[in-house]
TrEMBL record:
<keyword id="KW-0808">Transferase</keyword>
<dbReference type="GO" id="GO:0032259">
    <property type="term" value="P:methylation"/>
</dbReference>
<dbReference type="InterPro" id="IPR041698">
    <property type="entry name" value="Methyltransf_25"/>
</dbReference>
<dbReference type="GO" id="GO:0008168">
    <property type="term" value="F:methyltransferase activity"/>
</dbReference>
<protein>
    <submittedName>
        <fullName>Class I SAM-dependent methyltransferase</fullName>
    </submittedName>
</protein>
<feature type="region of interest" description="Disordered">
    <location>
        <begin position="1"/>
        <end position="41"/>
    </location>
</feature>
<feature type="domain" description="Methyltransferase">
    <location>
        <begin position="89"/>
        <end position="187"/>
    </location>
</feature>
<feature type="compositionally biased region" description="Basic residues">
    <location>
        <begin position="1"/>
        <end position="11"/>
    </location>
</feature>
<dbReference type="Pfam" id="PF13649">
    <property type="entry name" value="Methyltransf_25"/>
</dbReference>
<keyword id="KW-0489">Methyltransferase</keyword>
<dbReference type="InterPro" id="IPR029063">
    <property type="entry name" value="SAM-dependent_MTases_sf"/>
</dbReference>
Length: 342
C-alpha cells in the first residue's frame, strides 16, 4: 500500500514535528472490497480514537496559535480558500476541529463532523475554551450517516474536505452525494488531498537514489489494511489501535463522483508540495510545506473546487453546469436570459 496518510496530516500549523511520516506495514485485505461495513468502520473508528488521544497529548498537535486567537491553515488552503466571514461552513471528517475553529475565528459559522467521540469531545471543549461555541457546532457521526445526524439539506455555503480524508471512504459516489446534498444552490466544495499519483509510492518499497518505490497500483480496487508503526504527528508514539483500512481513489474517480452527484467542477490544481512529510526524501520549505529538494518529480497534492448549480440540470445544458440536459430545453425558441453569476 502507498504512503497514504491518516485522515489528518502533520501540518505546520498544528504539529511541531518535522520527522519522518509514520511507517506502515501494508497488506491487501483478504476480504477485498467485500469487507463488511462493521469490520472496516469499527477498525477505523478505533484507530482514530487512539490517534485523537495522541494528538491531544504533549507532542501531538500544536494548538498555540489557535488558542492565541490566530489559527492558521496550511499555505495551499490559505491561498485558495478565500474569505469565509459570514459563510455557513460544513467541515467533514474534521478530527479535533483545529481547522474548523480557525474558520470560526475568521467569522464563519461552522459545523464539524467526525466519527471519533474523543475527537469531537475535544473539539467541543476547545470551542468553549476559545469562546466560539455560539458559532462552532460539532457532530459525532459516521460520514455515510451524516445526513441523518445533521438534517440540514442545502444548508451550507461551503463544504470543506481536507488532507487524507478520501482514503478512508470505500464509496466515492456516496460521499459526493452527501457533499452535494449539504450545499445550497451556488454553494461550493473545497477539497485538498494527497495526489493519488504520489500515493502509489512508499518509503518501505525499494527506490533509486533514496526516493520511494512503487508499492500499490494506481487503479487498486481492493481494500488495503495498514499497520502503523508510529503516529504521523508524534513519531515517538504508536497508536494503541494500529490497524486501519484504506482505499485508493484515482483522480478521475474523484472528479467523476462529483459530476455524477450533479456538481460542476470549477477548477483543479496540482501541487509539487504537500502539507505533511509524505516521504523521507521530502524537505520542508520556507512556507512549511514539503517537497522534493531537487526537482518536482511528481504531483504530491491536488485541490479542487466544485459547486452546486444555481439552476436545475435541464436549464444548465448550455452552461456547463456539470450534468447533461435535454437537447431542446423548455425555453427553446425563446430569448434566453443570462445565467446569474455563480
Amino acid at each position: 500500500m502507498a504512503q497514504i496518510p491518516s485522515k489528518r496530516r502533520p501540518r505546520g500549523a498544528t504539529s511541531g514535528r518535522t520527522g519522518p511520516a509514520a511507517r506502515h506495514s501494508p497488506h491487501r485485505s483478504g476480504g477485498g472490497p467485500s469487507m463488511t461495513d462493521p469490520d472496516w468502520r469499527a477498525t477505523n473508528r478505533a484507530h482514530w480514537e487512539s490517534l485523537a488521544a495522541i494528538h491531544l497529548a504533549p507532542g501531538g498537535y500544536d494548538l498555540s496559535a489557535l488558542r492565541a486567537g490566530a489559527g492558521r491553515l496550511d499555505p495551499i488552503l490559505e491561498a485558495e480558500l478565500g474569505p469565509v466571514a459570514g459563510l455557513r461552513v460544513l467541515h467533514l471528517q474534521c478530527h479535533i476541529g483545529d481547522e474548523t475553529l480557525t474558520l470560526a475565528q475568521r467569522g464563519a459559522t461552522v459545523t464539524g463532523l467526525d466519527a471519533s467521540a474523543i475527537a469531537i469531545g475535544a473539539a467541543r471543549r476547545l470551542a468553549a475554551e476559545l469562546g466560539l461555541s455560539d458559532r462552532a457546532h460539532f457532530v459525532e457521526a459516521d460520514l455515510y450517516r451524516a445526513a441523518e445526524a445533521l438534517p440540514e439539506p442545502g444548508g451550507f455555503d461551503l463544504v470543506l474536505v481536507t488532507w487524507g480524508s478520501l482514503c478512508w471512504l470505500p464509496d466515492l459516489a456516496g460521499w459526493a452525494r452527501i457533499v452535494a446534498g449539504f450545499l445550497r444552490p451556488g454553494g461550493r466544495l473545497h477539497l485538498a488531498e494527497g495526489h493519488p499519483a504520489a500515493l502509489v509510492f512508499d518509503d518501505r518499497a525499494p527506490g533509486a537514489a533514496g526516493k520511494p518505490g512503487w508499492l500499490v497500483p494506481y487503479f487498486e480496487r481492493e481494500a488495503v489494511v495498514l499497520e502503523e508503526e508510529a503516529d504521523y504527528a508524534n513519531p515517538a508514539a504508536r497508536p494503541a489501535a494500529a490497524r486501519s483500512v484504506t482505499w485508493m481513489h484515482p483522480l478521475s474517480a474523484v472528479v467523476g463522483a462529483l459530476r455524477g452527484a450533479g456538481l460542476a467542477l470549477d477548477w483543479l490544481h496540482e501541487h509539487p508540495r504537500v502539507a505533511w512529510r509524505m516521504f523521507r526524501a521530502l524537505e520542508r520549505d520556507a512556507d512549511g510545506l514539503w517537497a522534493f529538494p531537487d526537482r518536482p518529480w511528481l504531483p504530491l497534492a491536488y485541490s479542487l473546487g466544485a459547486s452546486r448549480p444555481l439552476w436545475p440540470a435541464w436549464q444548465c445544458s448550455d452552461f456547463g453546469c456539470g450534468r447533461p440536459g435535454p437537447a431542446s430545453p423548455p425555453w427553446s425558441g425563446l430569448r434566453r436570459r443570462a445565467m446569474p453569476p455563480s
